[in-house]
Amino acid sequence: MRRILATAAATALLAGGAPASAEPVGFVAVSNGDVQLQQGGVWQAASRDGEVSIGDAIRTGTDSSAKIVLVDDTLLQIDEETELRIETFHVGDAATRDVSIVRQARGRLRTTVGDAFGGTTKLEVHIPTAAIGIKGTDFEVVEGTYWEACLLSGGIRVSNGYGAAEPAPGECLYAYPDRAPGDPHPNPRVPLEVSEAGAPGKPPLRATDFHEPIQVQVAAPPAVDPQQPPHAGVDPANPPPAVVDPYDSTTGDASEDELPTFDVPEPVLDLQ
Fold first, then answer.
1. Residue 33 falls within a domain, yes or no?
2. Scanning 6, 95, 110, 185, which has its CA 20 to 30 A from the CA of 20?
3. pLDDT band for position 135 (cuts 50, 70, 90)
4. CATH classification of the domain holding 35
5. Do the bridges between strand 100-106 and strand 123-127 make them parallel or antiparallel, or are there none, so unpaired?
6. Residue 160 domain-assigned (yes or no)
């Protein structure tokens, strides 16, 4: 389906490579949980393999995620509580020449830039406090107290009106609202991986969904023969030592007022 979309878009945009909002530029590859797509100003549930066009917005709810595949093979992996918009997107020769823009309003997004049009797509991710220019790369942008741009591989340039900075692979930069991006630090997160985790439209499966009660059969004590003397088989000249129950109130070591009594359950343990 990716190549069909790419061919259709490239044909429509052959003259000059200018983006046209009516043409699909990608599709929904994975939709887990509450994923919505805004098309023509109307929000609706996103369906797997549904088309994504220029101007469309995508948002995810709690415990939800999505993956969008664009016509140049760019992957957008979208975490929960995230919203973004495909603002502009160029195909054909223009893909490596003119800037395509994904605008991220909130949440966490991992972008792996494609190269299906003869070179790496010239893509930028814009956030409220900076623009992240991409140079053939894999990176994440995460909303927090300050926005963070984290480079996984390749190269990015994080810039705003105060300056610019470039993190090394494995590093993150803060994109401050009132000063230049900076303060590189090790990436504290495992890279986001969005995969189909259940039927489309269902929340991701959790470990507890596979948990089943485990029953352990405990051997019952041997039956006592009422006809058998209590000390049969014991050598009278060598009797076993007496056993004193420290919790027996008749011994004086503990009283019933101090220690509760318990009913003895059946010899089956149900471990949940």
1. yes
2. 110
3. confident
4. 2.60.120.1440
5. parallel
6. yes
φ, ψ dihedrals at 230, nearest 5°: -60, -25
Rounded alpha-carbon distances, angstroms, from residue 40 to 18, 43, 84? 20, 8, 15
The residue type at 193: E
Tokens 């039927």 correspond to 199
Query: Of the candidates 200, 208, 209, which has an alpha carbon nearest to the alpha carbon of residue 64?
Result: 200
Distance CA 53, CA 71 (A): 10
In a domain, 106, yes or no: yes
Q: Which domain holds residue 121?
A: 2-186
Phi-psi region of 148 (alpha: psi -120 to 50; beta: other; left: phi over 0): beta
CA distances from 248 to 16, 240, 262 (A): 95, 20, 13
pLDDT at position 266 is 54
Give the C-alpha separation, 216 to 267, whole Å: 9
21: tokens are 């909002």
**Which token pair is 200?**
């489309």
Tally of CA atoms within 13 A in the half-sphere of 46 that contains its CB: 30
* The pair of three-digit structure tokens given for residue 173, joined into one six-digit string: 């930069």
Binned at pLDDT 50, 70 and 90, residue 226 comes out as low
Number of compact structural domains in the chain: 1
pLDDT at residue 106 is higher than 60: yes
Average pLDDT value for the chain: 78
Instruction: Answer whether 61's CB lies under 8 Å from 82's CB.
Output: no
Per the model's pLDDT, the better-predicted residue between 202 and 140 turns out to be: 140
Q: Which residue has the tokens 């044909």?
A: 11
Is the confidence at residue 254, as pLDDT, over 80? no
